[in-house]
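Schema walk-through. Below, the input block comes first and the output block second. Nothing else is stored per chain. Lengths vary across the set, and this one has 271 residues.
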Amino acid sequence: ASSDCFSCHAANYTSAPEHVSQNYPKECEQCHNTTDWKQTTFNHSATQFPLTGAHVSVDCSTCHTNGYSGTSTECFACHENKYASSVNPNHSSAGVDTKCEDCHTTNAWQPSTFNHTTTGFELAGGHNLPQCSSCHSGNTSNASSDCFSCHAANYNSTTNPSHQSSGFGTQCQDCHQTNAWTPATFDHDAQFFPIYSGKHREKWNNCNDCHTNANDFSQFSCFTCHEHNQTDTDKDHKEVNGYSYVSTACLSCHPTGDDSAFLKFHPKVLK
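--- output ---
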């Protein structure tokens, strides 16, 4: 004799309401007990989909529309209509992922949350906006993390100084921060030349003291402040290979604004 319940209770299964039409499992012991056949219970937690939150009070047929076997545990399988009808943002056109659990919980479909940090772009400071569409004007899955992709208009409209005509780089994060677009800072010492430290500290007032071409900040002059006359400077540097009386040459030998780097390679020149 078989110890399988169904081998004896096939007739009970067949005559019970909806068992055949809804394709109930044939493991009778999942709902019935040996004390009383009609005292039925089902522990949904024993399945791969424990019922939590709002799912606890939902009628079985709401999810099990095609029988009780093989029902998908994917949220989207039941919530596809909600996905399609969402407008803030429009999930379909914005390409929002169909993993509903990334934003929604079983306790309540709304309000929803999304941990943007998991994307590699944390919403810090001014980026913590209430509307996704503020940054995601198109498909959310294709949004760029490059600052310039959103701030090109800021870059082009800046006049103090003019970023576009002055040849500023488009790495906004070099000067700006997410807490506030202005005031901006620029690490001139580390990236180019020490003007906030060393001998040039507090020796200038405006950028154009050195950058004499307001339309191109890649150009600079050492001679607006250092009143060398070319005759004496040429004589002092007559033993320096590659010397020329131009500012870029000054920078190549005096990258820190003093004579330390120069004297390392030419110790006898200014002896």
